[in-house]
């Protein structure tokens, strides 16, 4: 027996009250609540933000945004990734309410409670909407994976772990040790 579920739109999503201090996303019309990040998650996000922001600014490559920031991928999909990178040619996607369209790179710091969503549903959603690059940081494995969009699907371009420097697309000149993301 099929079940009917309400499909929300981006307009309805943005009209929701903001008084409950929860993080929500809209995935193909389905409202999803995200768990509150734990300190390790925030440490990794903060370290990665500082690294990317400095690199992007130094080379005049666009802008890096830190969560929470909404990214409208379609009329029924609004995501709130941990980090967003917009190359200079995508600067016009920034509006007063959100980033409206596919950014250059979306980054998710995965945890046991979000891993399935990040690895399956979001990976497919981001590819379907033409996000050229997607990074997943695996907190338990202490690793980072970079995916590139090719023929409408992501392929693993590079994986890094430990203290060995790695360069991830789209930042071929930026080498960093993934293990540094876990350090205070």
Description:
It is built from 3 helices and 13 strands. With 184 residues, the protein is an alpha+beta fold. It has a single domain (37-182), classed as tt1808, chain A (Alpha-Beta Complex), CATH 3.90.1570. The strands form 4 sheets. It has a 6-stranded mixed beta sheet, sandwiched between helices. It is globular, with a radius of gyration of 16 Å. The termini are far apart. The mean pLDDT is 93.
CATH architecture: Alpha-Beta Complex
Strand content: 25-35%
Q: Which homologous superfamily in CATH is the superfamily?
A: tt1808, chain A
Quickly give the structural class: alpha+beta
Query: What is the tally of beta strands?
Result: 13
Question: Which secondary structure elements does this structure contain, and how are they paired or packed?
Answer:
Layout lengths: L9 H6 L7 E5 L2 E5 L4 H21 L2 E5 L4 E4 L2 E3 L3 E5 L11 E2 L4 E6 L4 H14 L4 E6 L4 E8 L2 E9 L4 E2 L7 E2 L8
Quick take:
It is built from three helices and 13 strands. It is of the alpha+beta class.
Highlighted features:
22% helix, alpha+beta, single chain
């Amino acid at each position: 027996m099929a079940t009917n579920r309400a499909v929300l739109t981006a307009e309805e999503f943005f009209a929701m009250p903001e008084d409950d201090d929860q993080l929500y996303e809209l995935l193909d019309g389905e409202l999803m609540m995200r768990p509150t990040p734990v300190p390790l998650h925030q440490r990794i996000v903060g370290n990665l933000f500082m690294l990317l922001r400095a690199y992007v600014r130094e080379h005049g490559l666009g802008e890096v945004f830190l969560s929470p920031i909404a990214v409208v991928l379609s009329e029924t999909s609004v995501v709130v990734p941990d980090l967003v990178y917009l190359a200079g040619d995508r600067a016009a996607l920034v509006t007063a309410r959100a980033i409206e369209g596919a950014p250059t790179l979306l980054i998710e710091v995965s945890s046991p409670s979000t891993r399935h969503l990040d690895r399956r549903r979001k990976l497919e959603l981001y590819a379907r909407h033409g996000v050229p690059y997607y990074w997943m940081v695996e907190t338990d494995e202490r690793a980072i994976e970079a995916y590139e969009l090719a023929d409408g699907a992501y392929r693993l371009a590079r994986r890094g772990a430990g203290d060995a420097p790695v360069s991830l697309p789209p930042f071929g000149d930026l080498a960093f040790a993934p293990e540094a993301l876990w350090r205070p």
